[in-house]
Amino acid sequence: MLTRTVGVELGPHDIHVVGVGPGAVDTPINLSTVEDPEKLKTLNDAIPLGRLAKPEEIGDVVAFLADDEAGYLTATTVFTDGGLMQTSPGL
Q1: Phi and psi for 11 in degrees, rounded to 5?
Q2: What is the pLDDT of residue 22?
Q3: Is 91 part of a structural domain of the chain?
Q4: pTM
Q5: What's the rounded mean pLDDT across residues 83-88?
Q6: What domain count does the chain have?
Q7: Which terminal residue of the chain has fewer beta carbons within 10 Å of its beta carbon, N or C?
Q8: What CATH number has the domain bearing residue 74?
Q9: Can you say whether the dihedral through the CA atoms of 57, 62, 66, 71 is positive or negative?
């Protein structure tokens, strides 16, 4: 019910709450996977777009959400994962 509460309490004040759910991103947290060709292939094969995200791609989504063009979004999460939520390689 948190989503409903946020929308009800903050929406009338034009406060938007939107989460970003990044998938696998090519950052130091994934270094052990990126440096292991077998793990990286397993992960890339599990991502429908076939690769990790670049940090700037996640940043672009955040920038869009902060823009007036996304003004009707609130009380939701935008998953920016290249489709990874559709499957999991178990890494």
Answers
A1: -55, -45
A2: 96
A3: no
A4: 0.82
A5: 80
A6: 1
A7: N
A8: 3.40.50.720
A9: positive
